[in-house]
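User: I'm writing a tutorial on reading structure tokens. Could you give me a worked example: one chain, its sequence, then its tokens, then a sentence or two explaining what the tokens reveal?
Assistant: Sure. Here is the example chain.
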Amino acid sequence: MTGSEVVLQSVLTCPHCGHATTETMPQDSCSFFYECEHCKTLLRPKVGDCCVFCSYGSVKCPPVQLQQSCCHG
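And here are its predicted structure tokens:
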């Protein structure tokens, strides 16, 4: 055990309208899609990212935080 804790809360910010909302990240799966509650844009991961949290979140997803391969690994 390294003593580092995994952060499960991340603020997702829509790149289209700038709306930000705090979401709880799943520990056992990736979130490939997220619909902005303000403008209804469907967010998808950027090329090279495994999920919307890695692309648009304030905190990377739990597997990336732990330096493990994510869902598509």
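What the tokens reveal: The radius of gyration is 12 Å. Residues 9-65 form one domain.
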